[in-house]
Design goal:
The structure holds two protein chains of two kinds.
Chain A lengths: L10
Chain B lengths: L2 H24 L7 H14 L10 H24 L14 H13 L6 H15 L2 H10 L1 E2 L1 H28 L4 H23 L7 E2 L3
Antiparallel strand pairs in B: 1-2
Helix pairs in contact in B: 1-3, 1-7, 2-3, 2-5, 4-5, 5-8, 7-8
Classes of the chains: A little secondary structure, B mainly alpha.
Chain lengths: 10, 212
Amino acid sequence: LLQENDHDEL
Amino acid sequence: MNIFRLTGDLAHLLAIIILLLKIWKTRSCAGISGKSQILFAIVYTTRYLDLVTTFVSAYNTLMKIFFLASSYATMYLIYIKFKATYDHNHDTFRIEFLVAPAFVLAMLITHAYTLLEVLWTFSIYLESVAILPQLFMVSKTGEAESITSHYLFALGSYRALYILNWIYRYVMENNYDLIAIVAGIVQTVLYCDFFYLYVTKVLKGKKLQLPA
């Protein structure tokens, strides 16, 4: 369901 | 990186610079909610803990450091340097009513049960409502200086531009993050009333004044 946060966005 | 993401980040950067310059040039933080600024400092601190664990890009690292440093600098200006000008009588929003639910929600709905990921999720939820003390202050005093309005407009635009970034990423990269998307929409909706007043009043050269 949820796609992982890629920690790119601020 | 796409154009929506970049302009969103630049709007965010602009908002912070406007706020710092306003306080510095006027030597006053009148009309600015210290409570919202405390919340933003909590948001950046809990979100950017990954500065020490994950390297994404020089851009990413520099922006994170700037957002962290500027939020602490803003708190210093409000609570120490220009404390005498801080309008605490109108800044009465109880931030624990935002921090506690954001934390509980982060424990319930998160991508992964690791310390960094739960704190990242908490920061996303908290950011979505962090402007409420500031909006509450504007509604309590019934007005905002033009420069404060420009700050709020730039700050609100940033998450609205991020929504376009998420649509773009979903379409072009088939990548999406539901936590960030839903919280970002909530955050943007909270500004809608203000956006309306900004366009109908401030852009026409009038002061932002709410009807009595």
